[in-house]
Amino acid sequence: MKKKRVTHSGFTLIEIIVTLTVAAILSVILVQFMGTSISRSVAPTLSMQEGMTLQGIFENMNADYKRLLLVDSTPLATFKSRVESGYYGSYTVSQSEYIEFDTSQSEVACTSSPSECRVLKVAISLGDHSLVELFTR
Q1: Which domain holds residue 47?
Q2: Is the entire prediction scored with pTM above 0.70?
Q3: Does 10 fall in a domain?
Q4: What residues pair up with 94 in beta bridges, in sequence order?
Q5: Among 63, 95, 68, 92, which residue's Cα sits nearest to residue 79?
C-alpha cells in the first residue's frame, strides 16, 4: 500500500497572527489620519441645510409680501410687523428698518413717517448664515 500524503490546505496559525497584527497597525494609522475629518464631516451638510432653510424663509416672505400688496392698505408696515414677530419661522432679525437713498445713492435711514417710506431693508440670520433683502412699494 502506498502512504497517503497529507496536504495542507488553508493558513497556518502564524500567517493568521501576522495578518491580524498588520491589519491592526494599518487601521490605527488610518484612524489617526482620517479621525478628525470623519468626525466633522456633518458640518458642511448642516451649513447647507441652514442656508437653504434661510432661503426658504425669504421665499415665504416674498410670497406673503406679494399677496399683501394686493389685499392690504399698508403692506410694508404689515409686512414689517410680521417679520419682526417671527411670523415666517425660526430666524433672528438683524435689521428691519425703513431706508432711502440719498443723492449719491448711499443708503440712509428714512426720516419721513413710516407711511411715506417706500423701502424696507430686512436682514435675517440663522446659524452662521445671513441674508439681506429690500422690499419696496
Answers
A1: 43-136
A2: no
A3: no
A4: none
A5: 68
